[in-house]
Design brief:
The protein is an alpha/beta fold. The chain contains twelve helices and eleven strands. The protein has one domain: TIM Barrel (Alpha-Beta Barrel), CATH 3.20.20. The structure holds iron/sulfur cluster.
Length: 322
């Protein structure tokens, strides 16, 4: 599962006058992993988009003003036309062409080389465990961790530097996030994002108690992971979908805050929906701040927590900052 809501750290902060527009094109939901918490878990039967549709969408996204293009799935790299899509994106003129991936195809050096030649400028690996045992258990794909690590090494051997990582934070891995942070450093990722699992749809909705941790339990481990990045000299490690009261002192490392400063707008075009106001619809549909947030001085910046989380666990862990 890729972090399909946003993927990963963007290209960095920018002044308001230089804000970018970001287009995320979902190529389809086919994937060779089977992450049980995947937000698209129940969408695998939906047909992937055709090559012609995707090239047409790229042209429209460019006309809309997108500078930053992200191709995601499912697993976009599995497509027979993946290199053609990247070449088309380059020809259309996107400044950044990123893909979020489970990383397995990049283990093949010829594929990694071809993808860079085609024009990929940034690659975001989804790494859900610090060991093969944990990652492969979460992806339900034996050997997926070894292939991902080989993929990172292939790209580094080619001199490619814009390697990012994301991890979905679930009950099974939150205690190991500092260990995961150490792995991120060893693999040489320049940016990292820890994504609090989304139970609005898909696998984590269906199996909430299996996958969704209490934020009060997960947040300290997420902060410790950010501290590992800080100790190594980087603040380009982020957390996503978290209430700010659990991340005081880390406000500059919250993805949504960074994105508001970096991107003027983000669109998502998937096989089964189109969303041209991703942040607005997330606030309207998926996340909420309960009445107990009243008076919190962080409320303006904070998106609260998942509505589904509040429905199941309640709001007692959210503590207004006065
Ligand atoms: S109390 Fe509510 S508004 Fe304040 S930081 Fe926590 S979730 Fe956000």
């Amino acid at each position: 599962m890729k972090a399909r809501r946003s993927g990963a750290p963007g290209p960095g902060s920018a002044s308001p006058s230089a804000k970018l527009r970001k287009a995320v094109l979902f190529t389809g939901y086919s994937c060779n992993n089977r992450c049980g918490f995947c937000v698209d878990y129940e969408k695998r039967h939906i047909p992937d988009k055709t090559t012609a549709t995707l090239i047409r969408e790229m042209a429209r996204a460019k006309a809309w003003g997108a500078d930053y293009l992200e191709l995601i799935g499912g697993e976009a790299s599995l497509r027979a036309d993946f290199l053609k899509l990247v070449r088309s994106a380059k020809k259309i003129g996107f400044r950044d062409i990123a893909t979020a991936t489970n990383g397995r195809l990049f283990a093949y050096p010829d594929f990694a080389r071809a993808a860079l030649r085609a024009g990929l400028t940034s690659i975001i690996f989804s790494v859900h465990g610090h060991t093969a045992a944990l990652h492969d258990r979460l992806t339900a794909a034996a050997g997926s961790f070894a292939q991902l690590c080989d993929g990172v090494r292939s790209l580094r051997a080619l001199g490619f530097k814009r390697l990012h990582a994301n991890a979905t934070v679930v009950r099974q891995n939150y205690r190991f996030l500092p260990r995961l942070g150490e792995l991120f450093l060893r693999l040489g990722f320049c940016g990292v994002e820890l994504i609090f699992v989304d139970p609005t749809y898909g696998g984590a909705h269906r199996s909430f108690s299996k996958f969704v941790p209490r934020i009060s339990l997960a947040a300290p481990w997420m902060r410790r992971c950010l501290d590992i990045g800080r100790a190594a000299g980087t603040r380009s490690w982020f957390v996503r979908y978290v209430p700010l009261c659990h991340f005081q002192g880390y406000e500059d490392q919250v993805s949504e805050t960074m994105e508001r400063r970096t991107f003027a707008a983000t669109l998502h075009w998937a096989p089964d929906f189109k969303n041209e106001d991703v942040a607005g619809s997330r606030a309207a549909v998926a996340r909420a701040k309960p009445g107990s947030c009243g008076g919190c001085r962080l409320s303006g910046e904070c998106e609260g927590i998942w509505r589904e989380y509040l429905r199941v666990y309640g709001a007692a862990e959210l503590r207004p900052v006065l």
